[in-house]
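Protein in question passed on here:
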Amino acid sequence: MPEQFPGGLLLAADGGNSKTDVAVIAADGTLLGRARGLGFRPQVVGMDAAMEVLSGLRTQALDAAGLSPRTTADGIAAFLAGADLPAEVRELRRAVAARGWATAQHVDNDTFAVLRAGASRPWGVAVVCGTGINCVGVAPDGRTSGFPALGKISGDWGGGSDLGAAALWHAARDENGRGPRTALRAAVTAHFGLDTVTDVALALRRGQLAELRLSELCPAVFTCCDQGDPTAAALVDRLGDEVAGMALSVLRRLGLDRQDVEVVLGGSILAARHERLLTRVTGRLLAGAPSARPLVSTAPPLLGAALAALALRPSSTANAATTRAAEARLRAGIR
Protein backbone atom coordinates (compact mmCIF):
# COMPACT_ATOMS: atom_id res chain seq x y z
CA MET A 1 0.00 0.00 0.00
CA PRO A 2 1.41 3.45 -0.86
CA GLU A 3 2.72 5.27 2.21
CA GLN A 4 0.48 8.28 1.61
CA PHE A 5 -2.59 6.06 2.18
CA PRO A 6 -1.82 4.29 5.47
CA GLY A 7 -5.47 3.47 6.09
CA GLY A 8 -5.81 1.49 2.90
CA LEU A 9 -6.35 1.90 -0.82
CA LEU A 10 -9.44 0.51 -2.55
CA LEU A 11 -10.75 -0.02 -6.08
CA ALA A 12 -14.39 0.09 -7.13
CA ALA A 13 -15.76 -0.95 -10.51
CA ASP A 14 -19.21 -0.85 -12.07
CA GLY A 15 -19.20 -2.72 -15.36
CA GLY A 16 -22.52 -2.35 -17.14
CA ASN A 17 -23.50 -3.25 -20.68
CA SER A 18 -23.24 0.32 -21.94
CA LYS A 19 -20.35 1.71 -19.88
CA THR A 20 -17.77 0.79 -17.26
CA ASP A 21 -16.71 3.05 -14.39
CA VAL A 22 -13.67 2.51 -12.15
CA ALA A 23 -12.68 4.52 -9.09
CA VAL A 24 -9.68 4.59 -6.77
CA ILE A 25 -10.59 5.55 -3.23
CA ALA A 26 -8.82 5.92 0.09
CA ALA A 27 -10.04 4.05 3.15
CA ASP A 28 -11.51 7.29 4.53
CA GLY A 29 -13.82 7.56 1.50
CA THR A 30 -11.82 10.15 -0.40
CA LEU A 31 -12.20 9.78 -4.16
CA LEU A 32 -8.69 9.81 -5.60
CA GLY A 33 -9.27 9.07 -9.26
CA ARG A 34 -11.83 7.66 -11.67
CA ALA A 35 -12.20 6.61 -15.29
CA ARG A 36 -15.05 5.69 -17.65
CA GLY A 37 -14.99 3.60 -20.81
CA LEU A 38 -16.76 0.98 -22.89
CA GLY A 39 -19.28 -1.47 -21.50
CA PHE A 40 -18.25 -4.71 -19.82
CA ARG A 41 -19.67 -7.38 -22.15
CA PRO A 42 -17.92 -10.75 -21.72
CA GLN A 43 -20.82 -12.61 -23.31
CA VAL A 44 -20.42 -10.54 -26.49
CA VAL A 45 -16.68 -9.89 -26.83
CA GLY A 46 -15.30 -12.71 -24.68
CA MET A 47 -13.83 -12.74 -21.19
CA ASP A 48 -10.31 -11.68 -22.18
CA ALA A 49 -11.49 -8.64 -24.14
CA ALA A 50 -13.91 -7.61 -21.38
CA MET A 51 -11.18 -7.87 -18.76
CA GLU A 52 -8.90 -5.73 -20.92
CA VAL A 53 -11.54 -2.98 -20.81
CA LEU A 54 -11.56 -3.20 -17.03
CA SER A 55 -7.76 -3.35 -16.87
CA GLY A 56 -7.33 -0.26 -19.02
CA LEU A 57 -9.78 1.74 -16.94
CA ARG A 58 -8.08 0.63 -13.72
CA THR A 59 -4.81 1.97 -15.11
CA GLN A 60 -6.46 5.26 -16.09
CA ALA A 61 -8.04 5.66 -12.66
CA LEU A 62 -4.75 4.93 -10.91
CA ASP A 63 -3.02 7.45 -13.17
CA ALA A 64 -5.66 10.05 -12.28
CA ALA A 65 -4.86 9.35 -8.63
CA GLY A 66 -1.14 9.81 -9.28
CA LEU A 67 -0.40 6.13 -8.70
CA SER A 68 1.54 3.51 -10.61
CA PRO A 69 -0.34 0.80 -12.55
CA ARG A 70 1.70 -1.67 -10.48
CA THR A 71 -0.09 -0.51 -7.32
CA THR A 72 -1.85 -3.28 -5.41
CA ALA A 73 -4.93 -2.18 -3.54
CA ASP A 74 -6.18 -3.60 -0.27
CA GLY A 75 -9.51 -4.49 -1.87
CA ILE A 76 -11.57 -4.30 -5.03
CA ALA A 77 -15.36 -4.39 -5.28
CA ALA A 78 -16.42 -5.08 -8.86
CA PHE A 79 -20.06 -5.36 -9.88
CA LEU A 80 -20.15 -6.61 -13.45
CA ALA A 81 -22.62 -7.36 -16.22
CA GLY A 82 -22.58 -10.98 -17.31
CA ALA A 83 -22.48 -12.25 -13.73
CA ASP A 84 -25.98 -13.69 -13.88
CA LEU A 85 -25.48 -17.42 -13.25
CA PRO A 86 -23.42 -18.90 -10.39
CA ALA A 87 -20.90 -20.30 -12.86
CA GLU A 88 -20.51 -16.87 -14.47
CA VAL A 89 -19.95 -15.23 -11.09
CA ARG A 90 -17.26 -17.80 -10.26
CA GLU A 91 -15.57 -17.26 -13.62
CA LEU A 92 -15.49 -13.50 -13.14
CA ARG A 93 -14.15 -13.86 -9.62
CA ARG A 94 -11.34 -16.03 -10.93
CA ALA A 95 -10.62 -13.57 -13.73
CA VAL A 96 -10.38 -10.60 -11.35
CA ALA A 97 -8.28 -12.55 -8.84
CA ALA A 98 -5.86 -13.63 -11.56
CA ARG A 99 -5.02 -10.01 -12.30
CA GLY A 100 -3.65 -9.48 -8.79
CA TRP A 101 -5.13 -6.01 -8.53
CA ALA A 102 -6.03 -6.27 -4.85
CA THR A 103 -5.45 -8.36 -1.75
CA ALA A 104 -9.18 -8.91 -1.18
CA GLN A 105 -12.08 -8.83 -3.62
CA HIS A 106 -15.85 -8.79 -3.91
CA VAL A 107 -17.23 -9.57 -7.37
CA ASP A 108 -20.92 -9.89 -8.22
CA ASN A 109 -23.69 -8.88 -10.63
CA ASP A 110 -23.92 -5.18 -11.45
CA THR A 111 -27.49 -4.91 -10.14
CA PHE A 112 -26.13 -5.27 -6.59
CA ALA A 113 -24.30 -1.96 -7.11
CA VAL A 114 -27.63 -0.22 -7.74
CA LEU A 115 -29.01 -1.68 -4.51
CA ARG A 116 -25.99 -0.61 -2.48
CA ALA A 117 -25.99 2.88 -3.97
CA GLY A 118 -29.70 3.55 -3.54
CA ALA A 119 -30.50 1.91 -0.20
CA SER A 120 -29.77 3.45 3.17
CA ARG A 121 -28.49 0.11 4.47
CA PRO A 122 -26.57 -2.74 2.83
CA TRP A 123 -29.64 -4.95 2.31
CA GLY A 124 -32.96 -4.73 0.52
CA VAL A 125 -34.20 -5.30 -3.02
CA ALA A 126 -33.34 -3.49 -6.23
CA VAL A 127 -34.94 -3.54 -9.66
CA VAL A 128 -33.00 -2.06 -12.55
CA CYS A 129 -34.96 -1.08 -15.64
CA GLY A 130 -32.85 0.50 -18.35
CA THR A 131 -31.99 -1.12 -21.65
CA GLY A 132 -32.85 -4.41 -19.93
CA ILE A 133 -34.39 -5.43 -16.64
CA ASN A 134 -33.08 -7.30 -13.61
CA CYS A 135 -33.73 -7.65 -9.89
CA VAL A 136 -31.67 -8.77 -6.90
CA GLY A 137 -32.16 -8.87 -3.16
CA VAL A 138 -30.03 -9.13 -0.05
CA ALA A 139 -31.43 -10.22 3.32
CA PRO A 140 -30.13 -8.79 6.61
CA ASP A 141 -28.31 -12.09 7.23
CA GLY A 142 -26.50 -11.87 3.89
CA ARG A 143 -28.64 -14.30 1.87
CA THR A 144 -29.16 -13.20 -1.71
CA SER A 145 -31.68 -13.90 -4.45
CA GLY A 146 -32.19 -12.89 -8.05
CA PHE A 147 -32.93 -14.14 -11.54
CA PRO A 148 -30.92 -15.78 -14.34
CA ALA A 149 -31.72 -12.68 -16.45
CA LEU A 150 -31.24 -14.47 -19.76
CA GLY A 151 -34.03 -12.64 -21.54
CA LYS A 152 -37.16 -14.25 -22.93
CA ILE A 153 -35.78 -17.78 -22.49
CA SER A 154 -35.75 -17.27 -18.72
CA GLY A 155 -39.13 -15.54 -18.58
CA ASP A 156 -37.90 -11.94 -18.63
CA TRP A 157 -39.71 -9.01 -20.22
CA GLY A 158 -39.06 -5.34 -19.65
CA GLY A 159 -36.52 -2.63 -20.13
CA GLY A 160 -36.06 -0.37 -23.10
CA SER A 161 -35.37 -3.07 -25.67
CA ASP A 162 -38.51 -5.05 -24.88
CA LEU A 163 -40.71 -1.98 -24.54
CA GLY A 164 -39.48 -0.61 -27.86
CA ALA A 165 -39.92 -3.97 -29.60
CA ALA A 166 -43.49 -4.18 -28.28
CA ALA A 167 -44.20 -0.67 -29.56
CA LEU A 168 -42.98 -1.70 -33.00
CA TRP A 169 -45.12 -4.87 -32.89
CA HIS A 170 -48.29 -2.94 -32.13
CA ALA A 171 -47.45 -0.29 -34.71
CA ALA A 172 -47.02 -3.00 -37.36
CA ARG A 173 -50.33 -4.60 -36.49
CA ASP A 174 -52.06 -1.25 -36.80
CA GLU A 175 -50.50 -0.71 -40.21
CA ASN A 176 -51.41 -4.14 -41.59
CA GLY A 177 -54.90 -4.22 -40.07
CA ARG A 178 -54.43 -7.04 -37.58
CA GLY A 179 -54.57 -4.83 -34.52
CA PRO A 180 -56.24 -1.70 -33.16
CA ARG A 181 -55.34 1.82 -34.23
CA THR A 182 -52.56 3.27 -32.10
CA ALA A 183 -50.56 6.48 -31.98
CA LEU A 184 -47.47 4.29 -31.77
CA ARG A 185 -47.66 3.77 -35.54
CA ALA A 186 -46.92 7.41 -36.33
CA ALA A 187 -44.45 7.64 -33.46
CA VAL A 188 -42.37 4.75 -34.76
CA THR A 189 -42.11 6.04 -38.32
CA ALA A 190 -41.44 9.60 -37.17
CA HIS A 191 -38.65 8.54 -34.85
CA PHE A 192 -36.76 6.60 -37.49
CA GLY A 193 -37.62 8.97 -40.33
CA LEU A 194 -39.17 6.29 -42.55
CA ASP A 195 -42.44 6.23 -44.43
CA THR A 196 -43.99 3.06 -43.01
CA VAL A 197 -43.63 0.69 -40.11
CA THR A 198 -42.80 -2.00 -42.65
CA ASP A 199 -39.84 0.11 -43.75
CA VAL A 200 -38.62 0.16 -40.15
CA ALA A 201 -38.99 -3.62 -39.89
CA LEU A 202 -37.10 -4.15 -43.15
CA ALA A 203 -34.31 -1.82 -42.03
CA LEU A 204 -33.93 -3.90 -38.89
CA ARG A 205 -33.91 -7.15 -40.83
CA ARG A 206 -31.30 -5.88 -43.28
CA GLY A 207 -29.05 -4.57 -40.52
CA GLN A 208 -29.55 -0.96 -41.55
CA LEU A 209 -30.93 -0.30 -38.07
CA ALA A 210 -29.37 -1.95 -35.03
CA GLU A 211 -31.93 -3.85 -32.95
CA LEU A 212 -30.62 -2.11 -29.84
CA ARG A 213 -32.04 1.14 -31.24
CA LEU A 214 -35.55 -0.07 -30.49
CA SER A 215 -34.97 1.15 -26.93
CA GLU A 216 -35.05 4.68 -28.38
CA LEU A 217 -38.81 4.27 -28.72
CA CYS A 218 -39.37 4.30 -24.95
CA PRO A 219 -40.00 8.06 -24.68
CA ALA A 220 -42.55 7.75 -27.51
CA VAL A 221 -44.39 5.01 -25.61
CA PHE A 222 -44.67 7.22 -22.54
CA THR A 223 -45.69 10.24 -24.60
CA CYS A 224 -48.42 8.27 -26.37
CA CYS A 225 -49.57 6.94 -23.01
CA ASP A 226 -49.84 10.46 -21.61
CA GLN A 227 -51.85 11.48 -24.68
CA GLY A 228 -54.41 8.78 -23.92
CA ASP A 229 -53.41 6.04 -26.35
CA PRO A 230 -54.78 2.79 -24.83
CA THR A 231 -52.17 0.55 -26.47
CA ALA A 232 -49.29 2.58 -25.08
CA ALA A 233 -50.97 2.75 -21.67
CA ALA A 234 -51.31 -1.04 -21.64
CA LEU A 235 -47.58 -1.38 -22.37
CA VAL A 236 -46.72 0.97 -19.50
CA ASP A 237 -48.98 -1.02 -17.17
CA ARG A 238 -47.39 -4.28 -18.30
CA LEU A 239 -43.94 -2.90 -17.55
CA GLY A 240 -45.09 -1.77 -14.11
CA ASP A 241 -46.43 -5.24 -13.39
CA GLU A 242 -43.12 -6.80 -14.43
CA VAL A 243 -41.09 -4.49 -12.19
CA ALA A 244 -43.36 -5.12 -9.19
CA GLY A 245 -43.55 -8.84 -9.93
CA MET A 246 -39.79 -9.25 -9.91
CA ALA A 247 -39.45 -7.35 -6.64
CA LEU A 248 -42.25 -9.32 -4.96
CA SER A 249 -40.77 -12.64 -6.04
CA VAL A 250 -37.39 -11.79 -4.51
CA LEU A 251 -38.99 -10.37 -1.35
CA ARG A 252 -40.93 -13.59 -0.82
CA ARG A 253 -37.95 -15.83 -1.47
CA LEU A 254 -35.93 -13.94 1.13
CA GLY A 255 -38.82 -13.79 3.61
CA LEU A 256 -38.89 -9.98 3.48
CA ASP A 257 -42.40 -9.44 2.14
CA ARG A 258 -43.78 -8.59 5.60
CA GLN A 259 -40.81 -6.53 6.75
CA ASP A 260 -39.84 -2.88 6.56
CA VAL A 261 -37.59 -3.13 3.50
CA GLU A 262 -36.40 -0.66 0.90
CA VAL A 263 -37.07 -1.52 -2.74
CA VAL A 264 -34.70 0.52 -4.88
CA LEU A 265 -35.97 1.37 -8.36
CA GLY A 266 -33.07 2.23 -10.66
CA GLY A 267 -32.11 2.45 -14.28
CA SER A 268 -32.97 5.12 -16.83
CA ILE A 269 -36.63 4.15 -17.33
CA LEU A 270 -37.54 4.09 -13.65
CA ALA A 271 -35.37 7.11 -12.88
CA ALA A 272 -37.47 9.12 -15.36
CA ARG A 273 -40.30 8.89 -12.79
CA HIS A 274 -43.17 8.45 -15.21
CA GLU A 275 -46.27 8.94 -13.07
CA ARG A 276 -48.40 6.11 -14.42
CA LEU A 277 -45.51 3.64 -14.36
CA LEU A 278 -44.47 4.42 -10.78
CA THR A 279 -48.09 4.43 -9.59
CA ARG A 280 -48.56 0.98 -11.09
CA VAL A 281 -45.31 -0.34 -9.57
CA THR A 282 -46.07 1.08 -6.14
CA GLY A 283 -49.65 -0.17 -6.10
CA ARG A 284 -48.77 -3.73 -7.08
CA LEU A 285 -45.76 -3.81 -4.76
CA LEU A 286 -47.59 -2.61 -1.67
CA ALA A 287 -50.49 -4.96 -2.33
CA GLY A 288 -48.10 -7.88 -1.91
CA ALA A 289 -45.62 -6.37 0.56
CA PRO A 290 -47.45 -3.72 2.62
CA SER A 291 -44.39 -2.63 4.62
CA ALA A 292 -42.06 -2.27 1.64
CA ARG A 293 -40.71 1.19 0.89
CA PRO A 294 -40.18 1.76 -2.84
CA LEU A 295 -37.76 4.54 -3.69
CA VAL A 296 -36.40 5.80 -6.99
CA SER A 297 -32.64 6.11 -7.08
CA THR A 298 -30.53 8.16 -9.47
CA ALA A 299 -27.30 7.47 -7.56
CA PRO A 300 -24.56 6.15 -9.86
CA PRO A 301 -23.89 2.41 -9.47
CA LEU A 302 -20.21 3.23 -9.05
CA LEU A 303 -21.16 4.67 -5.67
CA GLY A 304 -22.57 1.29 -4.69
CA ALA A 305 -19.34 -0.44 -5.69
CA ALA A 306 -17.33 2.10 -3.70
CA LEU A 307 -19.50 1.64 -0.61
CA ALA A 308 -19.06 -2.12 -0.89
CA ALA A 309 -15.31 -1.67 -1.22
CA LEU A 310 -15.20 -0.06 2.23
CA ALA A 311 -16.02 -3.47 3.71
CA LEU A 312 -12.68 -4.71 2.32
CA ARG A 313 -10.58 -2.24 4.28
CA PRO A 314 -7.97 -3.60 6.69
CA SER A 315 -9.75 -4.37 9.96
CA SER A 316 -7.57 -1.92 11.84
CA THR A 317 -9.19 0.97 9.96
CA ALA A 318 -12.80 -0.21 10.05
CA ASN A 319 -15.12 0.79 12.86
CA ALA A 320 -18.60 2.23 13.01
CA ALA A 321 -17.53 5.86 13.27
CA THR A 322 -14.95 5.76 10.49
CA THR A 323 -17.31 3.79 8.26
CA ARG A 324 -20.10 6.36 8.62
CA ALA A 325 -17.68 9.17 7.85
CA ALA A 326 -16.22 7.32 4.86
CA GLU A 327 -19.67 6.55 3.45
CA ALA A 328 -20.70 10.19 3.77
CA ARG A 329 -17.52 11.27 1.99
CA LEU A 330 -18.14 8.82 -0.83
CA ARG A 331 -21.76 9.94 -1.30
CA ALA A 332 -20.53 13.52 -1.57
CA GLY A 333 -17.71 12.63 -3.95
CA ILE A 334 -19.35 10.19 -6.36
CA ARG A 335 -22.42 11.68 -8.05
The first helix runs from residue 42 to 45. The CA atoms of residues 41 and 295 lie 28 Å apart. The longest strand covers residues 73-80. The radius of gyration is 21 Å.
